[in-house]
Write a structure and sequence with these properties.
- This protein folds into two domains: 115 residues, Rieske Iron-sulfur Protein; 220 residues, Naphthalene 1,2-dioxygenase Alpha Subunit, Chain A, domain 1.
- 32% of the residues lie in helices and 24% in strands.
- It contains 14 helices and 23 strands.
- The strands form five sheets. Strands 13, 14, 15, 16, 17, 18, 19, 20, 22 and 23 form a ten-stranded antiparallel beta sheet that branches. It has a four-stranded antiparallel beta sheet with strand order 6-5-4-7, with no helix packed on it.
- Helix 2 crosses helix 14 and helix 8 runs parallel beside helix 12.
- The radius of gyration is 23 Å and the shape is globular.
- It binds FE2/S2 (inorganic) cluster and fe (ii) ion.
- The site of fe (ii) ion has 6 residues, from helix 6.
- Fe (ii) ion binds next to helix 6.
Length: 440
């Protein structure tokens, strides 16, 4: 069915395969920006990035540059990064402190931290014009909607649509999992992120995150090398190799074991990969952490929290979260074949330092731009993009276990980790967004 606007989604997306143009066509990409990134809830940042009055962080929502800023009354505002005078961006840096107001570097108009104009230096010349300080056209524009959930700030450029919590639906468990693992129930960001430009479409990154088949193929050689070094080290010292070796050697796990993970598709394209990769050791640091968790939550609740086995959560279309290791990657599409990802890491408030260091090791060893793991993924992404831009075939196959999913309410599950549910689920949401009328 055509969406009534000449854009035929059904010619591109079938239940078990999608057309290569979804990844390679510039017009489709522009429509994604309008229909998905300018309408859905998009992750802006974490409130701990802006702890003090005047602290700000800049990022992109689709094509729109925005500023997240902390106001004097402690509230957070998300504003378009544009001066209402002649259009200059107000903040050129990725982050900083703007003091009690924003001052434009072009003609020094000043704005309060909620975006309202505070002062313009030359006030003469406006009599008998349509200029009016009370007119919102002369204020910095706020995004249409902004909500914070457990410190995670999301914005939508559309004035209508479901609330953030409703939109997240059952996928909210992944964000809760990240925060609940903190003895104080909150996480805080490690001040800055890696930013990386991938030479591939944004959807290729998201699809890979929950692809349980690829690790033992793509990362197998790296995993085996780490395993071998760990063994040599253990033979030499008589002690177990540091846990960080396990982060990499786990990628050499036999393929069948990856298949034991569960994949879950939630409403709106969100997806979860369940299974913990055996990252809960019983070393003294972990035992100390477990004891602190019990003190804060009681034994029963602490066990419940630590037993949650989410390995990976996708908040479609903007986030990939590994909640047990406090990792978050935000997706900022640039063009059909270029995507920026921000790679963030968080600290569990109230947890001992070694627990933070351990997750930081994972951040550096697995998710940073320079790891052997990530490098192999990036190489794949680029090759996928180049293949999809060729005329060697029109379709991308998502046939594995198609038609065999269990559907219960909003949730589609399979206990076959290799099922391509996550890809089918993301494209179901993609179709809904892309079919909607153009008008915001
Ligand atoms: S463009 Fe900002 S004050 Fe003129
Ligand atoms: Fe990978």
């Amino acid at each position: 069915m055509s969406a009534g606007n000449g854009f035929n989604v059904d010619a591109l997306v079938e239940p078990d395969r999608v057309h290569r143009n979804c990844y390679a066509d510039n017009e489709i990409f522009e429509r994604e920006i309008r229909q998905i990134f300018h309408k859905a809830w998009i992750y802006v940042g974490h409130e701990s990035q802006v702890p003090n009055t005047g602290d700000y962080a800049t990022t992109m929502i689709g094509r729109q540059p925005v500023i997240m800023v902390r106001h004097q009354d402690r509230s957070i505002h998300v504003l378009y990064n544009r001066c209402p005078h002649r259009g200059a961006k107000l903040c050129a840096n990725r982050a900083g402190n703007t003091g009690g107001n924003f001052t434009c570097s072009y003609h020094a108009w000043q704005f309060k931290l909620d975006g309202k104009v505070r002062h313009i230096p030359i006030q003469s010349g406006y009599d008998n014009t349509r200029f009016d300080l009370n007119d919102p056209n002369f204020h910095m524009k706020p995004v249409a909607r902004m909500e914070v959930y457990r410190g995670f700030v999301f914005a939508s450029l559309s004035p209508t649509g479901s609330s953030l919590v409703d939109w997240l639906g059952t996928a909210i468990d992944g964000i809760n999992d990240m925060c609940d693992r903190a003895p104080e129930g909150e996480v805080e960001v490690v001040p800055t992120c890696f930013r990386m430009i991938q030479k591939s479409n944004w959807k290729i990154f998201l699809e890979n995150q929950l692809d349980a088949v690829h690790p033992s193929v793509t990362h197998g050689s790296t995993g085996l090398a780490a395993q071998q070094v760990a063994k040599e080290m253990e033979a030499e010292t008589g002690k177990p190799a540091p846990l960080s070796y396990h982060y990499i050697s786990a990628f050499s796990m036999e393929m069948e074991k990856w298949g034991d993970l569960d994949v879950v598709g939630h409403r709106n394209g969100h997806c979860v990969l369940q299974g913990y990769m055996g990252l809960r050791p019983t070393d003294p640091d972990t035992l100390e952490y477990d004891a602190i968790m019990e003190k804060h939550y009681g034994a029963e609740r602490a066990k419940e929290i630590l037993d949650v086995n989410i390995h990976h959560l996708l908040v479609y279309p903007c986030l990939s979260i590994q909640s047990p290791l406090q990792q978050l990657r935000a997706v900022r599409p640039i063009s059909a074949n270029e995507t920026m990802t921000e790679i963030w890491h968080f600290r569990l408030k109230g947890a001992p330092e070694p627990i933070y260091r351990r997750a930081l090791d994972y951040f550096y060893l697995v998710n940073s731009p320079s790891t052997m793991i990530n490098a192999d993924d990036l190489y794949n992404f680029r090759k996928i993009q180049e293949g999809l831009e060729s005329e060697g075939g029109d379709w991308v196959s998502f046939h594995r276990n198609a038609g065999q999913d269990r559907v219960e309410g909003d949730i589609t599950t399979s206990n076959i980790g290799f099922s391509e549910i996550p890809m089918r689920n993301q494209f179901e949401a993609w179709s809904d967004y892309m079919k909607a009328e153009d008008v915001v």
